[in-house]
Specification:
single chain, 425 residues, alpha+beta, Heat Shock Protein 90, 5-stranded mixed β-sheet, rod-shaped
């Protein structure tokens, strides 16, 4: 029974809504998942992002003060304009690529060396303004290079951004020794290095966070898939058995209508009871509270085989079966009896219980072909057997007949599952 797609998607979305959707393909491919676009983020989180980006612009105060002190000079006035334009363009640039900074997959395109074409053009504008700032203001204007370096980290691929930062440090150090009026001051160089280290660390943390978020998303999807498979397997086992018995009883009732109406009425009453039981079992399976009972399956097998006209040789007690094998033995009994009634045309069915598990044998025709693939019921039964350390075996009997068994290797032993076991039916 499949979970409706709209419910499955809603469940995944609700599980992941509280998680951060970090984007890390710039730092190294993690997966092909596409988190929700950055444009869908609430305005509150956007304002926090702008505040985080803008608060560091306070470090340009020395450059503004130097330009203000020289405002009587036309070049200094041009420096104020350049610094103001740099601040505005820096915030606009961050607004366009904030998804890359926060590790989120925004709507921008991704290229080989840079993130988006618009982001590249705006960064080139920052580069021009950052180069003009020292010319207009002096050495204090080189403070813009710190912001130019860190913005390069979320504009370009990581290695390119680091290379740009290294070049800026080298150029600044060269100018401090060769430009008249500049003093050798390592504060700008250290600021570039420390700021780039902090931003790179944040991006790497975003990469790890996204990997964790995607792992949680994958786990949620796998859990839904596993639950869907479990429900499909259980409903198949329940309805396959119950509908087979209902079909046999319906055929019997139709034959008895003219011969013995009273017996036909009794069979119809049994049909109603079986249908109600099957409905209850399906509801319990969907709710996840269904518990298999080996004694209950023995009682069902006795009734079903008798209704099909097959002589049943069943044990009277289940004490010999270990507790950990009772549930899988109940499933094996249900599957084996269903196959005997449906396919075997047998006259006798024998069920044997022991410390090692269960064996269901009949004297019927067996499978149509030894090369036929196993059915869904046998595949599901094999999974359950492996889960408790048992092995599912099916074989033909001589001169005719078929046997299904779920057994452990030794009495009381639970060997490790062997996933290369083959279902021989």
């Amino acid at each position: 029974m499949a979970v409706p797609a709209r419910h499955r998607e809603g469940l995944i979305a609700s599980v992941l809504r509280s998680l951060t959707d970090p984007f890390s393909e710039r730092l190294g491919s993690v997966s092909e998942h596409n988190p929700r676009p950055d444009d869908d983020r609430p305005w509150g989180s956007r304002m926090v992002g702008f505040l985080f980006a803008g608060i560091w612009l306070v470090f340009l105060s020395d450059a503004f003060n130097a330009a203000w002190r020289q405002r009587q000079d036309l070049r200094a006035d041009g420096g104020l304009v350049v610094l103001t334009l740099f601040v505005i363009l820096y915030l606009v640039h961050f607004a366009h690529l904030r998804s890359a900074f926060w590790g989120l997959n925004g709507p921008t395109a991704t290229y080989r060396w840079f993130i988006s074409r618009t982001g590249l053009l705006s960064w080139l504008g920052l580069l021009v303004l950052a180069m003009l700032a020292p010319v207009m203001v002096g050495q204090e204007g080189a403070a813009t290079w710190v912001f130019l370096a860190v913005s390069g980290l979320w504009t370009f691929r990581l290695r390119v951004g680091i290379a740009i930062g290294v070049v800026l440090v080298a150029v600044y150090e060269f100018l401090t020794f060769h430009v008249s009026g500049w003093s050798h001051n390592v504060s700008i160089s250290m600021s570039i290095v420390l700021a780039m280290a902090a931003v790179t660390g944040g991006m790497l943390a975003a990469q790890r966070q996204r990997a964790l978020a995607e792992a949680r998303e994958d786990n949620a999807r796998l859990a839904i898939q596993e639950e869907r498979n479990r429900m499909a397997r259980d409903v198949h086992d329940i309805l396959g058995h119950s509908l087979t018995v209902i079909t046999v009883k319906a055929e019997l009732a139709s034959r008895l209508l003219e011969v013995s109406p009273e017996r036909a009425r009794a069979e119809v009453d049994d049909l109603e009871r079986l249908a109600r039981d099957a409905l209850a079992d399906v509801r319990q399976a969907v709710a996840g509270f269904r518990d298999m009972s080996l004694p209950g399956e023995l009682a069902r097998a006795r009734t079903s085989l008798a209704a099909a006209g097959i002589e049943a040789q069943l044990p009277n007690a289940t004490d010999a079966v270990p507790t950990e094998l009772r549930e899988v033995c109940a499933w094996a009994l249900r599957e084996g009896v269903t196959n005997v009634i449906r396919h075997s045309a047998a006259s006798t069915c024998t069920v044997t219980l022991s410390e090692r598990g269960i064996t269901v044998a009949d004297d019927g025709l067996g499978p149509d072909s030894s090369s036929s693939p196993p059915g869904t019921g046998l595949l599901g039964l094999e999974e359950r057997a492996l889960a408790v350390g048992a092995t599912l075996r099916t074989r033909r009997l001589q001169p005719h007949g078929f046997e299904l068994s779920v057994l452990t290797s030794e009495p009381g032993a639970r060997p490790a599952p062997q996933h290369d076991d083959k279902v021989e039916a």
